[in-house]
């Protein structure tokens, strides 16, 4: 997991924007670090869905879970690090979802072939289409009850909550007759 210092170094555009705002307002540039820290702390004030933590814990007990993101939230600050084997950000990787490269890099770090990996996400294009195009299985986490409208591809799975996904993972393990993994 990256340290706060390294994570902040990955956010130069926001730092430049804050510096510009301070200069334009006539404020002292010594406020840059405290302003950035306030911004970054607010950026990492995440409220998880009520089912997320329990479901992540149940899934992570059965298989490695990785976070692939185009964002810059800090899993350590949010308190979610323990649920993930690793975090792969678009900035770290050099390409963002739906680029196949970020999905394939995650597969490599997991030591799995793409067809052995299930990518779970809520965005039709960034998550589902990106994963499918990269050769991964895809699960659409459809919390808003939307209707699938793409005809060119479909997710392998669709759930409304992470609890449903955790239930499915556990059912698959029971069907396979194994206590861990799928």
Describe this structure in words.
46% of the residues lie in helices and 11% in strands. The protein is built from 9 helices and 5 strands. It is mainly alpha-helical. It folds into 2 domains: 40 residues, no CATH class; 124 residues, Rossmann fold, CATH 3.40.50. A 3-stranded parallel beta sheet has the order 3-4-5, sandwiched between helices. Strands 1-2 form a two-stranded parallel ribbon. It is elongated. The N terminus is likely disordered. Strand 3, helix 8 and strand 4 form a beta-alpha-beta unit. InterPro entries: HAD-like_sf, HAD-SF_hydro_IA, HAD_sf, S-2-haloacid_dehalogenase. Keywords: Hydrolase. It holds the Pfam family Hydrolase.
Low-pLDDT segments, ≥5 res? 1-9
Can you identify the CATH class of the largest domain?
Alpha Beta
- Biggest sheet character: 3 strands, parallel
Rg over C-alpha atoms, rounded to the nearest angstrom:
19 Å
What is the molecular shape? elongated
Strand-and-helix sequence, N→C? HHHHEHEHHEHEEH
- At the fold tier of CATH, the topology name of the largest domain is Rossmann fold
The average pLDDT score comes to 89
Number of E-type strands: 5
Portion of residues in beta strands equals: 5-15%
| Helix percentage | 40-55%
Helix tally equals 9
SSE topology sketch:
Blueprint: H1 4-9, H2 12-25, H3 32-43, H4 52-60, E1 66-69, H5 75-78, E2 86-89, H6 90-93, H7 100-110, E3 118-121, H8 124-133, E4 137-141, E5 157-159, H9 162-175
Parallel strand pairs: 1-2, 3-4, 4-5
